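As the work plan foresaw, the team has encoded backbone shapes as discrete tokens. One protein thus recorded appears below exactly as we store it.

:::
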Amino acid sequence: MSITKSQTEKIGSIFNGNRFIIPTYQRKYSWTDTERKALWQDIEESIKDKMNHFVGTLSFKENKSIGLSTDTVYEIIDGQQRITTIFILLKVLIDKISNEDVKKNQLSAFIGSHNNLKLQPLGIDGEFLNQLLFKPETLDAEKINKRSQKFMFSAKKLFTAFSNSLTETEIEERIIFIRDNIEVLVFNVVSQAQAVKMFSIINDRGLPLRILDKTKSILMLYSTLHLKEKLNDNINNSFEKIFDAYDDLLVCREKLGILGRLEENTIFTQHYYSSRKLFSSTWNNRDGADTIFDNLKVKCEELKDRPDELKLFIADYLEDFEKFAVSYSNLVQEVETKVIYQKTFRYLEFTATLYPLLVRLYMQGKLDDLLPILETIEVRVYKLRGTNPIADMYWLSSHISEYNLTVEEIKGHLVSFSEKFVNNHVFRTYLEGAIYGNGAVKYILSEYSNGNHNIEIYKDYQVEHIFSKDPNYDTTSYGFADDYDYEKNRLGNLSLLEKGINIGLGNLPPINKVNGYLKSTNTEIRNLAGQIQKGNFDKLNVDSRRDDIIEFSIIRFNLD
């Protein structure tokens, strides 16, 4: 059954006699349990209220049928998140029908068969969906690495849990409701140009267009309308790689516990901050994602009547953004395996402001040589001083992408940057103060204790007050004066101790913490236990220890 050009359709009539493909350039499946639960609840409430349920708009482009198939094949332009979710839900419900003949009939009408699905994402996600729906026992959840595949697996798991409590009559009721009472507004477009126009204006009810979708859409629009579709394939291919790179970054973020609140806006804006050459007239290091997107549209609009220049700009932007996104993903994936990246990326955790520069240096093969000075900048400026200067860093990120600077030239810029914000005198001054709670303290103490801890141990460490934070003893008997509230938080009175051990020590004096310290994996605090056990450990020892740590830090995090 062909889908008419524009009308409201039932889900049942859409799948009847039709097949759908999700092209590789589309973003991958990304609905979470939040959206899936909302769909389930909408269905439940609509059944209870005896009402139809409208799920938004779908946009298709008819393709030629393959081989002798009598089904019409459609390319999904917009709406694949909802279609995929409903498709998985239907398969879960149909699997629970006990009558094998009825089950076979329903599968044939709505789902298809093994290796011949009615909904087929192209590429490896298609292979995964087929396996998930027909051979789920062959999947190992722990080995699913692609984010889109994790989401599809979670969708089936969620709907299975929800449907397990239903009777067979209730299962049939929901299948019939989805078939006959879920409605969509369908747009069946006939050309790529029409498809692009439609995609650029549709408001997806379930998951609004995000910045990468909008960027791809606007570039496709200008390529289609003003370049006779010459760059459409380039745009599709580049954004397939950009979408995959972003999804891989999210998987790495969860796995490695880095990158903070990374989102699509992050990779989009960080690329912009390091590509001033592409936006010479509008580039501003404080622009947000919406402004950057507007700048992109303005640039395309300015060039639309000069097709050669428009083509060059879009091609340059695509090439640079793709390389940036893929390099970003490759860099973060190497963090897990490359020894020299472990401490700076996972223990210290570079501030987001540094990532445009880190990625550009990685792209140029210069990151490894400059890692020590970047570590020093992170410790001194971003962690210890607690500032987040962006203008100089984004300028340098763009500067090195525009000009072929040597490692020494880039190092000169980085040294000047650090001297501007935290030179050795300022560094020492900060280290002298009461810095408990400062973002650099844990890393400095880890390095001072030789820092050969694995990530699990490092994450478990807490910053311990040797003379307690809230002592249950008289601190003046250990040489402290009335300024103990200041002195207790200085560097010499701080060390690293496992959380479980630290909790058990409470507010005891140092001599009563010795047994606990001796249980630690931290060699430095075990040695400290020996010093305390020796006797007469007081403020003078803490002051001497502070001087040692400061001198160590000046040498360890130097600007040479």
In short: Residues 217-422 form one domain.
